[in-house]
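Before relying on records like the one below, remember that each one covers exactly one chain. Contacts with other chains, cofactors or solvent are not represented anywhere in the record.
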Amino acid sequence: MILTTITILTATTMFMDSKEYDMSGTPHALIVHEGDAEKVPLPGGGQFQLLEDSRATDGLLGANRLELPAGADGTRPHHHRLSTELFYVLGGTMEFLLDGAPTAVGAGGLVVVPPGVVHAFGASSDGPAEFFAVLTPGIERFGYLRQLGRIARGEAAWDSMDELHDTYDVHFVGGPQWR
């Protein structure tokens, strides 16, 4: 298990789960250095980098980075009932399914998916791709991303997510084939 250290710039902190959290209720800055982010390996050299799971921001947001090899899917079609998801493409070309419409978004492109919009994403077959994702309001979803890693590596089945939809606000729609 990799431990993540989060530094919170405030005078009042409390230690929980090998992380520092501000418990004062006052606004504070959050810094997560790349080397401190938990990494969840995916097949073909891809990975999730788990940056913020909403606890250190009092539920304001969750954030992660996803790197995928050419042609790899990030996840199957799904929607969120509570949260808006923002994707900023850092490199390569990501293919998105947005309410049934496929679209390609290259480096520097931004996609904002409001609650209820069915979406899926993956790297273009032309090469690897990566994005930075923010979910707001934040929901503790790192358990979901870790489970996706286990599924992608063949260590768990998709049906292992069946009881977790409400917990992670990820509601699958249809099967895994979307492109």
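Residues 51 and 64 are 5 Å apart (CA to CA).
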